[in-house]
Structures are given as C-alpha cells and as structure tokens.
Amino acid sequence: MLNPNASGVKPHAIVIGLDCMTGLQTARILVKHGIPVIAIASDPNHFCCRTKVCEKILIADTKSEKFIDLLEALGPNLERKAVLYPCTDMSVLQLSKNRGRMATWYHLALPKNDVVEMMVDKIRFFHFAKEAGLPLPGTLFLNNRADAEQAAKELNFPCILKPPLKTKIWEQNTKAKVYKIKSSQEFLELYDRCSGWAKLLMVQEWIDGPDSNLYSCNCYFDAEHRPLVTFIARKLRQWPPETGTSCLGEEVRNDEVLDASVRLFESVDYFGLGYVEMKVDQRTGKSYIIEPNIGRPTGRSAIAEAGGVELLYTMYCDLLGLPLPVERVQKYQGVKWIYWRHDIQSAMHYLLRGELTIGGLIRSWRGRKACAIFSWTDPAPFWHDLFRNFYRLFNYWRAAPYRKPKV
After folding, report:
1. Is the pTM of this model over 0.85?
2. What is Dmax (Cα atoms) for the chain?
3. Which H helix or E strand runs over 262?
C-alpha cells in the first residue's frame, strides 16, 4: 500500500505520452522542480524517448487501455500517490473513462467525464459553444458524399477540412492536422481521398489572417473551478504554414482571449489543465475559438514556464495539498518559444515567397527563448531529431532518379 507519511523524495509525476514534444517538455519542466518522473510511451524509438531526465520510461499503447493496465501494475510499487500528466487527447479520454481504477494510486485533475467527452468531441463542443453564444467560425459536419456535395455549394472558400477526433487510421495516412482548401473542386477531391480515414469529417470557415493572429490561453483550474494560473501567448510562425503546429511563439497580452477562455471553462465547472486557441479575423477584428484542448499540457506549456509562470508545477502542488508557487501571474515580458528545426523550415517558406525578410527573421529570433527540443543538459533528443531528418532527406535525394515523374 502507499505510504502517505513517506518523506524525502517528492511523489512521482507520471508523464503519459513521452513520445511527443509535449511529453518531453513536460518531463523536463517537472524534473527542474525536483520531481521524479516516470514516463510512458508508445514508441520507444521516438527521438523524445532519448531523454535522460526520466527515472524510468515504460512502454505501452497510450491510445488504448493497455497503459491503464500498466498504471494499475505500477501503482502498488509507488511509495506515495503520484500525479498523472497525460499528454495526448486519447490518453485523457482513457484516463477519464477509467478514473475509478486510478483513484487508489494516482491524483488526476479532470472535470466530470461528460465534460471531458464533450470538449474533446468537436461535434458536441460545437453545439455546446453555439448554444452558449461563444464565437465560432462557420462549421459543417460531413457524414457522406451527399453532405460534402451540399457543403461545396454552401461554403465560402478557402476553408479547412479535418476529423472531429484524429483516429489511428487518420494518423496512419497523413501527418496533417487539417487541410486548407481553395476551391469546391479541390474540396470534393480531398473529401473522396480522406473520407475513409474517419467516420465523420468537419469543414470550417477559414478565418483570414497570418499565423500571428492565432492566440492561446493555457490555464489551470482547481477543484473549486477557480483559475489558479492563466497564460496568454500567440504564434508567430507554424509548420506546416497556416495549418500546422506552432514553431515560434511569444507571450502577449490579449484580454479578449483571456476573458473568453475563462468564461468557457467556468461555464462547465472545469477542473485541470486547459487550453483554448483563438484567431483574430484581420478583416473584422473579431476573435473566434478554433479549438480547446483539455486535461493535458500543450506545446505552449513551456513558454509559460520560461515567462516565470509555473503552470504545471501549480497543478502538482494543488493536487498534493502543497503550498502553491508564488509565480502564477503573467508579467508580459515578451518571452518566446521555438522549435528550431520546424521554424527554420517555416521561415524558409516565407522567405522564398517574399513574405519575410532576413531582417524580419533575425528580429523574430531576438529575446529570451524557451526551446522545444534543444537542451544543453539533455541534448540527445535534439540531435536524434536532427540526424533522423537528415537521414530521411538523404534517402529522398538518393531515390530521386528512380522516382517516376508525375503525369
């Protein structure tokens, strides 16, 4: 049994999903606070699993109940009740459904299961947010080809196409989070290509504006549904451009995004880590909710830490009944966050299109920064990521003479 009076070493944090950038950043942040970390990963060969900061790295499928079984087996071997940090949507869903099995051995910060499922399910969230009067871009859901044909007649292009929840089949067929579509013909062709990758697809109005119009709020709400920490940032660039994941961001002040995010979470009696992304339409100046992420850290959690806001440590202390960190208020110092490899790719894209100058690039890299992958004290993930991609590029060039030209 767990020993609640065990002294000395702090209770463990269990990072679920080390084999992604978010998992690696989460483990590093917690270790800096003196917290021993045990990680779970699906892919032991992922470059993030080269980290040396974890006490143990255990292998289990983090998209199925297999990691729940692993947690049950691990629990009796822990001296004190540990804190769970799921780092993917599927692991959040699995933990929420199986929270009763976790209660003896682990602390878990999540709202009620129906709230978790509603906010992860983009269809249910859309209907909830619409009824609540929250700002949303125009959205349609596609069950079949007939729905797609009707949508093609009604849509204003450009628009984006994506699944309400990324499935294994979707991820096996594409790395894209979403597709940006410029015409009705392209839309129907793309629908035919990827309709078999998910039971349902959604198409959404494109909010006009550059990457820098994308704002986010990272936050933590306690069990009394109070926001103990909030942190606002925005993207400067992302990879792939327009529809990808942030590769350069900075902390900023945006009270409209903050107020809308807090209002959203308070309306569902929220508990745990939360994230809302919003985009400002450059034509109207109005902000729209793009998506929420719940129950887990995000890629932008590290920028909060770099900005002096102890987001993830606050959750740890709150769940264990420890004194809360003093550093929980954003100071708006303009701290940046960067994923170097992806940002160089994104910058090259904009430089070649004439949408970015060398001077603008240099200015965008100035200032204090948190690095997504690179670390002086834990360099292996960075080098494995870099060499792996050089190897892929080399093989691509080597195979070039043998590739058939497109007709």
Report:
1. yes
2. 71
3. helix 255-266
Instruction: Label the pairing between strands 369-371 and 272-280.
Output: unpaired
Contact 91, 296 (CB under 8 A): yes
Evaluate the omega torsion of the peptide bond into residue 227 and state whether it is cis, within 30 degrees of 0: no
Structural domains for the chain? 13-110 (3.40.50.720), 138-205 (3.30.1490.20), 211-371 (3.30.470.20)
Cα separation, 213 vs 235, whole angstroms: 7
Give the type of residue at 89. D
Extract the runs of DSSP E, i.e. beta strands, from 65-195. Answer: 82-86, 106-107, 139-142, 159-162, 179-181
Q: Which long-range contacts (CB under 8 A, 24 or more apart) does 389-395 make?
A: 389/341
Partner residues linked to 274 by β-bridges: 219, 294
- Residue 86: what pLDDT? 98
What digits encode the pLDDT tens for the residues 72-130? 999 999 999 999 999 999 999 999 999 999 999 999 999 999 999 999 888 899 999 98
AA identity, residue 182: K
**Cβ pair 18, 54 in contact under 8 A:** yes
Calculate the dihedral angle through the C-alpha atoms of 229, 233, 239, 245, rounding to the nearest 10 degrees: 30
Between the CA of residue 301 and those of 22, 42, 231, 249, 397, what are the distances in Å? 8, 22, 9, 11, 36
Cis before residue 323, ω within 30 degrees of 0? no
Strands 227-239, 245-251: pairing is: antiparallel
List, in sequence order, every residue forming a beta bridge with 14; answer none if it has no partner. Answer: 38, 84
| End-to-end CA gap in the chain | 66
Cβ neighbors of 7 (< 8 A, separation 6 or more) are none
Please state whether beta strands 139-142 and 159-162 pair in parallel, antiparallel, or not at all (unpaired).
Answer: unpaired
Query: CA 310, CA 290: separation in Å to the nearest integer?
Result: 25
Write the CA distances from 355 to 239, 341, 352, integer angstroms. 15, 19, 8
Helix 89-97 to helix 113-120 angle (10° resolution) is 160
* 8 Å CB contact between 191 and 143: no
